[in-house]
Write a structure and sequence with these properties.
By secondary structure, the chain is mainly beta. The chain contains 1 helix and 6 strands. Helix content is 10%, strand content 36%. β2 and β3 form a beta hairpin. The structure holds zinc ion (ZN).
């Protein structure tokens, strides 16, 4: 990460390790996908990354077919820390 100007925007990103997930979880994320570009499900994705932004866990990867970045918000009830849900 580069050290850009601190804009004090509310977009704090915390890196997480996608590969800490169980193999089943990883498999699901990598295969059960939706690609906006292809307009198709389950094309699969590659180069997964995981991070937390504003308390929302996001898994990011690239569509295995077209390479478009796809983001998946993870509803993870076991997340530490509280966060408001759409209020
Ligand atoms: Zn695609």
């Amino acid at each position: 990460m580069t050290d850009t100007n601190n804009d004090a925007l509310n977009d704090e990103i915390v890196e997480r390790n996608f590969f800490d997930r169980t193999p089943e979880d990883q498999e699901a994320f990598l295969t059960q996908t939706w690609c906006n570009n292809c307009q198709a499900v389950d094309l699969g994705m590659v180069e997964p990354k995981e991070y937390e932004q504003n308390g929302v866990i996001i898994v990011e990867g690239k569509c295995a077919k077209c390479g478009e970045v796809s983001l998946t918000e993870v509803a993870d009830e076991s997340t530490d820390g509280e966060w408001e849900d759409e209020r």
